């Protein structure tokens, strides 16, 4: 495992792509930066990185689902005695407030995983942070180290609800990875795309995206 910290980058995702282009990237390497000027999320929305934000990216040849990544993040927060909620496919919530996001991009046979977390208070941004919501200030590099440890162990243990209400009908939850698969009362499978819906694992609620 190796962590490379840059003072300033346009995007940690873009940096990993550049390293892959030149064959300079080695697996189990995590790229992070103190300042990210052009970071982006899953919908290509801008992710401002202030002094309180941890952003990092890494590439992995094996397919790592959003659920695995979210679970690894939850395990990392558990290590710091912080209970977060998972909102499939790519959000981490704390007390119902988004404090982290995930993006996965396929590139040259790799999955490039990017993660942004608002860890502590930054007067320049209006986003809520872990510190503001819990009073706990976590060192960014220590958090990344703990996450990397969970990644190497490839933990994917998550207690899920068995049933969920969808379109005013009770459905059984059969499968939750990059897509959510339900079964209705008649035994018919219903496929829920993460392009159009999110699933709050804490409140057991399927939410249609706007």
TrEMBL record:
Keyword Ligase: yes
BPL/LPL catalytic domain: residues covered: 8-118
Protein keywords: Ligase
GO molecular function: biotin--[biotin carboxyl-carrier protein] ligase activity
Record's keyword annotation contains Acetylation: no
GO cellular component: cytoplasm
Cross-referenced InterPro entries: aa-tRNA-synth_II/BPL/LPL, BPL_LPL_catalytic
Listed name of the protein: Biotin-acetyl-carboxylase ligase
Organism name: Tubulinosema ratisbonensis
């Amino acid at each position: 495992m190796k962590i490379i910290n840059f003072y300033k980058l346009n995007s940690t995702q873009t940096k990993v792509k550049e390293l892959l282009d030149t064959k300079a990237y080695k697996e189990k390497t995590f790229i992070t930066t103190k300042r990210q000027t052009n970071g982006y999320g899953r919908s290509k929305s801008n992710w401002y990185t202030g002094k309180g934000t941890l952003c990092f990216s890494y590439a992995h040849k094996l397919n790592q689902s959003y659920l695995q990544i979210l679970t690894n993040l939850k395990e990392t927060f558990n290590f710091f005695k912080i209970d977060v909620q998972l909102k499939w496919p790519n959000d981490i919530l704390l007390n119902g407030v988004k404090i982290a996001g995930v993006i996965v991009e396929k590139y040259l046979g790799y999955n490039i995983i990017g993660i942004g977390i608002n860890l502590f208070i930054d007067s320049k941004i209006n986003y809520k942070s872990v510190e503001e919501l819990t009073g706990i200030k976590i060192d960014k590099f220590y958090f990344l180290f703990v996450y990397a440890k969970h990644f190497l162990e490839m933990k994917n243990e998550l207690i899920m609800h068995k049933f969920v209400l969808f379109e005013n009908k009770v459905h059984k939850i059969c499968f939750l990875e990059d897509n959510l698969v339900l079964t209705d009362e008649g035994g018919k499978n219903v496929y829920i795309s993460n392009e159009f819906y999110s699933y709050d694992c804490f409140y057991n609620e399927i939410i249609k995206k706007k």
